[in-house]
Write a structure and sequence with these properties.
By secondary structure, this protein is an all-alpha fold. The protein contains six helices and no strands. The chain has one domain. Helix 1 runs parallel beside helix 4 and helix 2 crosses helix 3.
Length: 128
């Protein structure tokens, strides 16, 4: 399938969303995410590593927004993140909530508690 198709664009968007969700799950900034990926991709020591990481951070931000980012590159980033110790620890501690268009459980609990109180009040009023 040629690149740039709707199917490729959906895959790229899903991969980008997955990377962003992983970043949020660990509480990382975009700069921290970029640093982890950069250090894994460039294991040799550089004289001006900070400037290189900063350039890569800007590049990564764009890659996480563009439809034209190669899916293979995003998959590679995901593998790097999955192999990081922080990610392995984060997966065991707290699951990342995903918005699925349903009502939040805390709202449901609040409505349920309020309706129980109303029913009790109504029963109390009828007893008098």
């Amino acid at each position: 399938m040629p690149t740039g198709t709707i199917r490729d664009n959906k895959q790229v968007k899903q991969l980008q969303d997955e990377i962003i969700a992983m970043q949020k799950q660990m509480g990382w900034t975009k700069a921290r995410l970029a640093e982890v990926i950069y250090c894994e991709l460039n294991e040799e020591d550089e004289d001006d590593e900070d400037a290189s990481i900063q350039k890569f951070t800007e590049s990564l931000k764009k890659q996480l927004k563009r439809d034209s980012t190669p899916p293979e590159l995003l998959k590679r980033y995901i593998r790097i993140i999955c192999n990081h110790d922080d990610y392995r620890k984060a997966g065991r501690v707290v699951a990342n909530p995903v918005l699925i268009g349903a009502v939040d459980i805390s709202i449901l609990r609040g409505v349920s508690a309020a309706s129980k109180r109303l029913l009790q009040d109504m029963e109390y009023d009828t007893e008098l």
